[in-house]
# Entry
Amino acid sequence: MDDAQLLRYSRHILLSELGPDAQERFASAHALIVGMGGLGAPAAQFLAAAGVGTLTICDADHVDLTNLQRQILYATGDIGAAKVDAAAQRIAAINPEVRVARIGRRVGPADLAPLVAAADVVLDCSDNFATRHAVNAACVAARRPLVSGAALRFDGQIAVFDPRDAASPCYHCLFGEGEELEETRCATMGVFAPLVGIVGSTQAAEALKLIAGVGKSLAGRLLLVDARTMEWRSLTVPRDPACPVCARRPA
# Structure
């Protein structure tokens, strides 16, 4: 690192758990963010500010006026622009050292396999079960850690699914594909604006810990937050030995 980088990242370098070694790992890391809405926006900002070297951001949407209540990466002047383009521009303003790859379409299984394999950590910031299950399957196949988040109304959840850990469940162990789960969106149910920031920034924190190899991740746990009372709960999530997605993954 040069003098400017040492100064930029000094508050991380001062932490004994991180230091210059972790900062170098951030610089060489590649994070994939699927979904650049309420969760992806704060997650991308914190990863970029922390100096994660490469971000691949995926989203098919354009910035809409209704997004601005909570998707703090975007401004009024971005309305109508592709989210990945507006996000890349803002990330460059935050930290020009970060390389940003833009995928301006909805990614499916065929897209996700190479994208996930190229990443060190994956953040699922999407808003639908089909994408979440596709991201999970790709992460299990490539043995990449997945940081999953969701937020609706006043309720948020965060979990880490790490296929490198034999005891860690995958997303399918918790939410089985094909089960009768109601698909609800904030477009019809609403969402408390700061909640997506809480969840998205927590996803960024878990991703940075995984890259640096510090602390204890949320693997095997589901963290729930109720923003009405600001109460947090941590639930243990066991691995399903009969899970059709991760049961046969290599040890």
Remarks:
- Residues 3-236 form a domain with the Rossmann fold fold (CATH 3.40.50.720).
- The radius of gyration is 17 Å.
